Amino acid sequence: MKGYVKALTIPMVLALWALPRSARAQNTLAITSTAFAAGASIPVGYSCKSPKVESPPLAWKGVPADAKTLVLIVKDPDAPRGTFIHWVVYNLPASLGGVDAGVPLSGTLANGARQGVNSLGRVGYLGPCPPPGSPPHHYRFELSALDNALELNPGATVSEVESAAKGHVKATGELVGTFAR
User: Which of 2, 33, 35, 150 has a C-alpha 20 to 30 A away from that of 59?
Assistant: First the structure.
């Protein structure tokens, strides 16, 4: 039996090694916020209930040394009509350790990053705003480290960003916050 297991193990290891790096396990990024803990409620100031809604502060660690840029996408998979996109940011410099609260609503940021459109077709962050009385929604702040910059103009859709990033992801991480009205 030992010889049989050994005979199967070697080809399996070689087959896994032959897979492209993108098909093997990816590194994990740690993403946090000083505004809310993982799994906790997102404060009102970062939601549609605030008259001056702004994006929350975010920090991350674990960006691979060979990463060139980062992509940040915020999704609400609990939305009544399917996943709702709240924020799309791409070409963030990989050297950044995070973003401050209140990222401007402009297509191109001072650090060279670009913002795409949310599900309402607007550039920039759109705070959580689930239907009143619904159970808390889960807002997924998804961060990806890429080995290249995306050749996309400001205002790209989440589909365009995800498609352009395909095959270039070196590491991923996620922070989930909740919100209910």
Answer: 150
Cα 154 from Cα 143, distance rounded (Å): 18
Q: Which runs of E-coded beta strand occur in the chain?
A: 27-28, 30-32, 58-61, 69-76, 84-93, 98-99, 114-115, 137-146, 169-179
Q: What is the pLDDT of residue 2?
A: 52
CA distances from 50 to 47, 54, 92, 144 (A): 6, 9, 27, 29
Residue 26's pLDDT is 63
Tokens of 18: 């032959």
For the record, the structure tokens of 88 come out as 């799309």
Q: What is the mean pLDDT of each run of 10 residues along the chain (181 residues)?
A: 47 43 65 98 97 97 97 97 97 98 98 98 97 97 98 98 98 98 94
Spell out the domains of the chain, with CATH numbers in brackets.
26-179 (3.90.280.10)
Q: Residue 59 contacts by C-beta under 8 Å, 6 or more apart in sequence? A: 31, 32, 33, 34, 97, 98
Do 111 and 125 contact (CB within 8 A), yes or no?
no
Terminal-residue alpha carbon distance, the chain: 61
Q: Max alpha carbon distance in the chain (Å)?
A: 69
pTM of the model as a whole: 0.85
